[in-house]
Design brief:
The structure is a single chain. The chain is mainly alpha-helical. The protein has one domain. Helix content is 68%, strand content 0%. It has helices at residues 5-13, 23-38, 42-59, 64-72. Helix 2 runs antiparallel to helix 3. The protein is globular and about 30 Å long. It starts with a helix and ends in a 5-residue tail after the last helix.
Length: 77
């Protein structure tokens, strides 16, 4: 599972609307949303997408419940 740039943009711009079962993922989203609010360039967004996808790749086995939320973002993954 991976997140697209469009999905990441939605997550970061509307981070308060999404709550995931994994605390670590919630914390990552919160930190990246704060960074994104200060620096929303395309290059920065690409770096955030990479960080999100690295996290998802590492912890995919624990993210089953959260995959449904992510899949609904912008038409799915």
């Amino acid at each position: 599972m991976s997140i697209t740039t469009g999905q990441a943009r939605l997550l970061l711009e509307q981070s308060d609307q999404y709550k995931f079962s994994q605390l670590g993922f919630n914390m990552l989203i919160g930190r990246l949303a704060r960074q994104y609010s200060k620096n929303s360039t395309e290059a920065a967004l690409n770096a955030y997408v990479k960080e999100l996808n690295d996290f998802l790749a590492k912890y995919a086995h624990m993210m089953n419940a959260d995959k449904k939320i992510i899949a609904k973002l912008e038409g799915g993954v």
